[in-house]
# Entry
Amino acid sequence: MTEIDEKETLRPTKEERKKIFRNLSDIEIKRLYTSKDLDDLNFNYPMDLGEPGKFPFTRGVYPTMYRGRLWTMRQFAGFGNAQQTNQRYKFLLEHGQTGLSVAFSLHTIYGIEADDEKALGEIGKEGVSIDTLEDMETLFNGINLSKISTSMTINAPASMLLALYIVTAEKQGHTPDKLRGTIQNDILKEYIAQKSWVFPPEPSMRLIIDTIEYCTKYVPQWYTISISGYHIREAGSTAVQELAFTLADGFAYVEAAIERGFNVDEFAPRLSFFFNSHNNFFEEIAKFRAARRIWAKRMKNRYGAKKPESMRLRFHTQTAGVSLTAQEPENNIVRVTLQGLAAVLGGTQSLHTNSFDEALCLPTEKAAKIALRTQQIIAEESGVADTIDPLAGSYYVEWLTNKMEEEAEAYFEKIEELGGVIPAIKANFFQREIANASYKYQKEIENKERIIVGVNDYIQREPCSTPLLKIDEKIAQEQIQKLYKIKKTRDNKKLKEKINSLKEAARGTENLMPYIIDCVREYASIGEIINALKEVFGIYQEDSIF
Amino acid sequence: MVNQRKIKVLVCKPGLDGHDRGAKVLARALRDAGMEVIYTGLHQTPDDIVQTVIQEDPDAIMLSMLSGAHNALCPVIMEKLKENGIDDVLVGIGGIIPDEDKTFLEKHGLKGFYGPGTELKTIVEFVKNNLKR
# Structure
């Protein structure tokens, strides 16, 4: 009886909704997966999965996973000035958030001072506006930096923001060894996808390795880079490309640190990752599982890691901003729930769930609270956190995990053929792959090969009634005035000496972190430090391909 | 004589915003629709944009803005175009532009306002049907 049923289901002549089913990475999905699919892949439980907390970490990086401790609920937030954002942080902490995550204003991200003409209209719009130590002190006012972990989404000026954080903590009375947090500090994906670069790749890599070296010595609990696929995906890549390009960036950082003279086990435990969780549920879960396995194998086999901590891929996840629709925005709550669930079933260490209004504006307080509540409901009510890697052994999930790994490996080969990540960036390889994938995706939506509810099907046109968060234009003027005041009251002579020492050191090969710390302590603006380094390092220009 | 010249469009990213997915997808769609497309790349100041417009003489400029800087930057761009005697070029905008900002931007001569989820063919038609020359 069972046999007949199976035959019936596998028969390919039945009418189906689509001729071919494909996921977002263009992998063809079969009608049914059985044990034969795993046999075909020579699937081997101890080799391919192993136990949670053990090599190759496919089932998770810790032996108890969420039974021990839930993931960190870390909502990315920042807008307006330091004072406003400080209030939002206190609001989120009061509602059960367990870590902070700072979104910076665009001018801060590029190291441009608030009064620069390039900052016109940008101040406080996409994140909190920070120029000097004074802003940083306000941002964390009343928040004990030895008790909380803070993630800072900052790249080109990452070393400067780390310096600011260290000095802010010092002023609160905490030594750097007490500090826990992450700087994104992943410049390679900036050239590839997010585009907030300043310097050319080579000096940028030097700054990153400088922060790794400094933290290894003085800020041992700090995660020195968050190697990020999130932005690659948001820029339009597929899940496989996100997986492959992110891990390839990771390999490039490891190789650069080894070249600086580090043993891989000295720094690798403090590397972390940041992925996107998009709409295709099982594809995302397979991606997370494959990422852990690929990283573990590469760290052990290629880079000779000995410590298990060096092989463990730990990651933060954010649900896909790009999947949010401006049409019927409340539906986004459901999308975010599914994406957040995929991240949890994929074994994430921390999670940001997007607010439903983000296709329209920065999140309002109400929307930010619903997003946090979504995680709490997944954690406390659904039961999915009660057992580890519950989808392991599923014929489909294991097949897909292997398939993602296989396709990522093919990309690694291609990147190696191009001479590595930086040459591939300069040849626009990643940029072109992403542009092609995003155009194809958009075409599929327009041809209704993919349905987005409320956008290209089930459309109901009604006026948008979502309340929006507006940033007061006064914020910009106030930020500029604050900067002027600091510049008048600080010891400018002393600062000039510090800036000159920094430039001098930049011309040599010394670690720049102590010099940067000296500058921020004297209330140098991030822009002043960036400009000093631009004189030595130059700037990056990209080709405008599409 | 039949005018065989292709419609020429400048796709443009003003300000510091790095979200260029939409701009690139649009640039390609306009090109696939038979237009000549120039993409400025990122981080364009109003002066950069006006310089490119003077050099390239496009029929339309399509601005893509997602960072919230539109109310500050668009009036400056429009003013500088006018100062340079450029008044026969269609200027369209897309990205994250809240409804309540539309009237303000319309007063400054901007059109379009295409947000997330807009079909590409809608924007292609918009360009074809709203040219000023």
In short: The longest helix of chain A spans residues 395-417.
